[in-house]
Amino acid sequence: MEFTVKSGDPEKQRTACIVLGVFEPRRLSPTAERLDEITGGYISKLIRRGDLEGKIGQTLLLHDVPNTLSDRVLLVGCGRERDLGDTQYRKIITTAVNTLNEKGAMEAVCYLTELHVKHHDIAWKVRQAAETAQTALYRFDQLKSKKDTERRPLRKLVFSVSSRRDLADGERALEAGLAIAQGMALTKDLGNLPANICTPSYLADQARDLAKRYKNIKVDVLDIADMEKLGMGSLLSVARGSEQPPRLITLEYSGGKKGEKPVALVGKGVTFDTGGISIKPSDKMDEMKFDMCGAASVLGTFCAIAEMKLPINLVGVIPATENMPSGKATKPGDIVTSMSGQTIEILNTDAEGRLILCDALTYCERYEPEAVIDIATLTGACVIALGRHASGLLSNHSPLAHDLINAGKTSGDRAWELPLWEEYQDQLKSNFADMANVGGREGGAITAACFLWRFAKKFHWAHLDIAGTAWLTGEKKGATGRPVPLLTQYLIDRCLERQGRVASGG
Ligand code: BES
Ligand code: MN
Ligand code: ZN
């Protein structure tokens, strides 16, 4: 799929289709209005007849519109003009792209990027349009023997900007949007792959692939012997029941100045979570192949920032393992010693995410990171608390939490903060070890974060619980690519802020 940015009048576009917006009730957008005049009122006549009310989701495809050079004009409902915000804009773009793809217009010039969206500039609109279009066109059909390909798929999409002055901004935004979409596609592909293919070693190979593709990414993969030497007893206790060897994957992207402290991303990479001896019920257990989506989002974010050549230093740490029951598996009541030296009584082997992340967090200390963000499909409780729209966010440093929440707002990949309070720590008390790995049903997402907090005392840290946001269930079952947009936006904002500080001498 090819994308470009262009500035020009709709009637002059020699293309298979031009795409214009119509507001509710039956009101033309400014560009549609302009084309209507040139066509002698052709479009407004159709609208007046009641062919398109302008509701979001509605479309009307016109052929051979007089006085234009394009084969078709696609009118897309945009809802009420004053309600046009982020969510509506993304829905409108999705509808347009799906319609173009189905109706066989292989190329199109899209004027929806010129719509006025509350609080946003042209760069935001172009970037979101590119990301949204790629999301709509994403298919996971690697494992289907017969692919149901469109007869005439959309191949080329041009986003229009209203003035030539916007071209440079638009082009840069387009590049960023495509980089993020590429990162999301990698994250989705890895999430969607079944656990018999996407094993810990497979994730390690994927990281190595990134290092081959981008020369400023370096990858190192630790095996069981390395982990034993480091004393990662907690991580190893989860891997014990599996025939698949665990891996600790580290990535280093050096786009920033030498010696500049990195941001570290830590991703939960449980390639299949049966629950171990505290085994899960079988209903929907297949979805536990998605339990490595945190890891996949780290790889996807590395891909996006390397594509964008972001001037930043970034570290990735991915503990990867299966969680399986077996004669060798860890049993409830077993006590292990983490790399930090703290001992853990494993009361529930299904609370395995925190057991692998705690050693990964301790491992992060060696990078002296400016900030550490872990990303994990950690608790069902987070899905109960927040549903599937927001990732859970908990942090020991409020400016970091603030920056992540804002990055979520900008990117449309939102997070919502839950309290990380000392009071909740009591729930993790153990009679036999320094702590238990579970804190009971109450506030389950919070006590999980409280557990991790004990291993994040030496740096600014935030935890993203993506159990509700990393994949969709039901008919649309599949990975979402979240929170790659949020993480990438956070890193972009950091670079901009730093540049601003340099420019202003601060
Ligand atoms: N991977 C799961 C969390 C999960 C469950 C994500 C369902 C999405 C949907 C995690 O390892 C887990 O099993 N968590 C337990 C923790 C409990 C034993 C304290 C949970 O949430 O039930
Ligand atoms: Mn589990
Ligand atoms: Zn899990």
Task: Give an account of the 3D structure.
With 506 residues, this protein is of the alpha/beta class. The protein folds into two domains: 136 residues, 3-Layer(aba) Sandwich (Leucine Aminopeptidase, subunit E, domain 1); 321 residues, Aminopeptidase (3-Layer(aba) Sandwich), CATH 3.40.630.10. The protein is built from 14 helices and 21 strands. The strands form four sheets. Strands 8, 9, 10, 11, 12, 15, 16, 17 and 19 form a nine-stranded mixed β-sheet that branches. Strands 1, 2, 3, 4, 5, 6 and 7 form a seven-stranded mixed β-sheet that branches. β16, α12 and β17 form a beta-alpha-beta unit. The model has no long low-confidence stretch (mean pLDDT 97). Bound molecules: ligand BES, manganese (II) ion (MN) and zinc ion (ZN). Zinc ion (ZN) binds next to β11.
Oligomeric state of the chains? single chain
Instruction: Supply the helix-strand structural class.
Output: alpha/beta
Strand content: 15-25%
What is the second-level CATH architecture of the largest domain? 3-Layer(aba) Sandwich
Residue stretches low in confidence (pLDDT < 50, at least 5 long) are none
Count of DSSP H/I helices: 14
Corresponding CATH superfamily of the largest domain? Zn peptidases
CATH topology of the largest domain: Aminopeptidase
Mean pLDDT: 97
The overall number of domains is: 2
Question: How far apart are the first and last residues' alpha carbons, in Å?
Answer: 42 Å
The global form is elongated
Helical proportion?
Answer: 25-40%
What characterizes the major β-sheet? 9 strands, mixed
CATH class type of the largest domain: Alpha Beta
Q: Roughly how many Å is the radius of gyration?
A: 25 Å
Strand tally is 21
* Bound ligands: ligand BES, manganese (II) ion, zinc ion
